[in-house]
Amino acid sequence: MEGSSAEAELSVSASSIRITDLTQDGDILTFAIASQKLNSSVGVCVFRAYEDFDWLQQSLFSQENVPGIQGIIFPPLPPKALPSQSNMQAKTLKQLGFLALGKDWQGYCKALEFYLQQVATHPTLCKCKALDSFLINSESPGKQRGRKGILNRLSQAVEEMRKESHKDVDNFFQNERNKNTNIAALSKVATEKLLDVVMTEQKLALACGHFSTSLHLCVNQDDAAAVAFSKVCLKLSDIIEAVKRNFEKVATNNLTTLGLGLDLESRNQEAEKEMLFRRTCKLIELETVKKSTEKAKANKREVMEAFQKAVEKEFNLISSVGKQEIERFNNSRVNVLKNFLIDWCEQQLNAAKEYAELYSQHLEACRNMYSE
Amino acid sequence: MAEDREPPPLSTAGLTEPEDGEDLFVSAASRMEASPASPEDGTSTSSNGPKPEQIFLDEDPDDLFAEATEEVSLDSPERQPILSDGPSPAITPVTPTAIIDPRVDLFDQSQDEDEDEEESRDTFDVQISVSDPEKVGDGMNAYMVYKVTTKTSLSIFSRDEVSVKRRFSDFLGLHSKLASKYLHIGYIVPPAPEKSLVGMTKVKVGKEDLSSVEFVEKRRSALERYLMRTVKHPALLKDPDVLQFLESSELPRAVSTQALSGAGILRMVNKAADAVNKMTIKMNESDAWFEEKQQQFENLDVQLRKLHTSVESLVCHRKELSVNTASFAKSAAMLGNSEDHTALSRALSQLAEVEEKIDQLHQDQVCADFCLFSELLGDYVRLIGAVKGVFDQRMKTWGKWQEAQMMLQRKREAEAKLQYGNKPDKLQQAKDEIKEWEGKVQQGERDFEQISKNIRREVGRFEKDRVKDFKVVIVKYLESLVHTQQQLIKYWEAFLPEAKAIA
After folding, report:
1. What is the mean pLDDT of residues B491-501?
2. A39-53, B153-167, B231-245, B254-268, range with the lowest pLDDT
3. Which end of chain A, C or N, has fewer beta carbons within 10 A?
4. If DSSP codes are grouped into helix, strand and coil, which group holds residue A319?
């Protein structure tokens, strides 16, 4: 297929793709993307804005000569960030969830990085010229406007909801659709709940900071009694500072590992849903055509039958590509989640060990000081 | 004249060590005989030789107030208001004259050491616990009864261990008795826990929900702390009312503690009167120590209230975190249930369990500890109120003394006038009155100096206790922090293999 598709292999190593830097100019975020040329130590670095990512995604959608393209589960692109609104504003939070939190858009960059890696490791999509040029060309491709290919569904019209629940002809797909509907909803909820937890942890850290500062204000050197009390207050202030940093650490760990992981899972499930929906639509189209063909008058019948055959072929192609994609998807998501869970656990474990040690030291010091 | 004379700093007046030949502390009997020292008198007061027993100031109130207890009728519905000018002490140290002043500084240090020695010699060995809250009765007449257990090896108690049942109004009754006895001589009487109409009504109505359980537990803990603080005070420990409260199985019902009773209203009226008095009495503060201390306590009050607010907001967020963690745990569990992949499913379920356990950990320990701080700070805000009250009492005492001086002045003027008239019987009466008011002036001065001295000592004790209390709470808090982290380590270490076992 390689020769005939006129699409080149990706010239950089997929695993080396990194978003290394970020600059902000008013509303525009510019990402520095680094990667390494295959079989060479030469590195490439390019600068891209969100519209370039969007261009890439559209180019992937609108590829020609990819059989059963509608059966592909396209890696989800995170929504556009509007940095002029502060990170914590409700709108950005609602739109981006976990990706809005974290210092300097760390989470958001990570998500974009994942996106590129997912595209680059996809057996079919990695061959798209657009990807290569995105990663290598110093010139920003975003100025060119590609054709609109298959669009991701952005809104749930009532009619579409009906289509979504259309009964399938294939058990495998029916099962997958049911599972997907379930898990997509649940992972979305879990992501939101974890977000609530992280927000509260951050609030607690802030409150600890206030408490610690208030304790500092109690210090005065008026007389011996005041000095003794001030010492106690300062000690407590230090301890509360430590508690504050503890909460911040725990929140950051939640954010950068499990939070990011659940967010990715949630968006991936949505991507699978898109694919399954496209196939279902095709199925409905096929069934409609079949019915029309049956009803067609003799003179039109041949044309209709030819048309039906074409649709059927498309549908079968989509289904076979879809099946492969689903298997690949399920394997990869388990791995991805596993890595996130391990990361999360290890980081929280380290934080717990670090702070157990710190608190123990404080306790020893206090016991010694106060036993006089 | 009395007005010109400044009351000497009285941290040590009246208290010496037995080795010192100069005994400033005379017994009641001898004091009655000795003529009141006049300001111009340069001689020292008569000394009756060292009387070691009486040097221990703390025993005085015992002797003094053994009578006082009977004077104040405990069972009368119209009880005296809490901040009444109670029976004045029959015994006060005779105020030393100007000669004593130079000695004051010498004794400053030693008096405190002496006191501390005394206190540590009677190794403080009293443990009071308040437990087993029980609801008695039904509906709006219901009340909670608490078991008060005292374990001690001190001899003033009749038994090593004694348990009694007390209700909340009994505690309030105890406090009001102690306040009426000791507040006006400058002892800082620990305030009783506050009434809570809302909290109690919930309990009465029978709501068995979390908030009323929390309320009862908070109250139980507050009552325990209240009693411990009370007995830590060396004078209060020996007070017969305190002993009766802790030991006797039956206690006369303190009806006058009800907010809307006759006595309650009288209290409110008196409080208002006091507030007005405070504004009108312009005290000539000659002792910088008192002025500084008052300012310090004002500042401390503000700071503590701020801290208290800070901690309350922390407790609030803690509870919110607990709710959110539980909610997340549930959603993770549901995700785990729907997951096809076995190992992933198990890992997700384990995740949910870990989060639940973490939530429980936080609920159990960290919230309790924040409550520890919250309660401690609340206690101290109220204690500072009591301290301020004691300073106010000193002002009142000074006011009384000044009034007596003015009266004396008037009587002297009246007598001078009568000298020129020819009414021998009226003259005699005037002379008698002068004598009477001279006595009152001296009494007033003595009272003032006594209360000033007491306050100094009480403040010193308060400040030491404050540091101790905070230290104890900090250590407790750190212990729970360490414990929480160690539990967390266990949970994460248990989860890690599950995560690694996926795929």
Report:
1. 92
2. B254-268
3. C
4. helix
Chain A residues close to B357, C-beta within 8 Å: none
Q: Do the beta carbons of residue A250 and residue A341 sit within 8 Å?
A: no
Determine contact, residues B173/B263, Cβ cutoff 8 Å. Answer: no
List the one residue out of B143, B177, B340, B327 whose CA is nearest residue B245. Answer: B177
CA angle B500, A256, B503 (to 5 degrees): 20
Report yes or no: B410 and B436 within 8 Å, Cβ to Cβ.
Answer: no
User: Which residues from A are below 8 Å from B338, CB to CB?
Assistant: 179, 182-183, 186
Inter-residue contact A239 to B477 (CB < 8 Å)? yes
In eight-state DSSP terms, residue A6 is: T
**Helix (H/G/I), strand (E/B), else coil: B150:** strand
DSSP per-residue letters across A51-102: HHHHHHHHHHHT-SS-TTGGG--PPPPPPPP-TTS-TTSHHHHHHHGGGG-S
* Subunit contact A356:B486, Cβ cutoff 8 A: yes
Compute the residue count for chain B: 503
- Rounded Cα distance, A190 and B330, in Å: 9
Which residues of chain A carry a pLDDT beneath 70?
1-8, 84-92, 142-159, 372
Strand-strand pairing, A18-25 and A28-36 = antiparallel
Any idea of the CA torsion for B393, B396, B397, B402, to the nearest 10 degrees?
160
Residues 6+ apart with CB under 8 A from B323: none
pLDDT band at B59 (very low <50, low <70, confident <90, very high): very low
Nearest-CA neighbor of A116 among A235, A35, A195? A35
Q: Which of residues 160-189 of A touch B (CB under 8 A)?
A: 179, 182-183, 186-187, 189
Q: Note the pTM of the prediction, 2 decimals.
A: 0.76
The C-alpha atoms of residue B337 and residue A132 are separated, in whole angstroms, by 41
- B446 pLDDT higher than 80: yes
Beta pairing, strands A28-36 & B161-167: unpaired
| Cβ-Cβ contacts under 8 Å, B306 against chain A | 214, 217
Task: Give rounded-to-5 percent helix, strand, coil for chain B.
Answer: 70, 5, 25
Interface residue A15 vs chain B (CB under 8 A):
no
Per-residue pLDDT band for B493 (boundaries 50, 70, 90) equals very high
Q: Give the tens place of pLDDT for each residue, A216-233.
A: 888 887 788 888 889 999
The whole-angstrom distance between A176's CA and the closest CA on chain B is: 11
Helices and strands per DSSP (H, E), number in chain B: 14, 3
Q: Residues B292, B398, B85, B279: is their CA dihedral positive or negative? A: negative
| ipTM here | 0.88
Q: Which of A229, A338, A352 has its CB closest to that of B466?
A: A229
Beta bridge partners of B147: B131, B165
| A225 with B471: Cβ contact below 8 A | no
Token pair, residue A213, equals: 């500062």
Query: How does pLDDT run across B140-152, given as a tens digit for each residue?
Result: 778 888 989 888 8
- Nearest alpha-carbon partner for B28 in B374, B477, B308, B446: B446
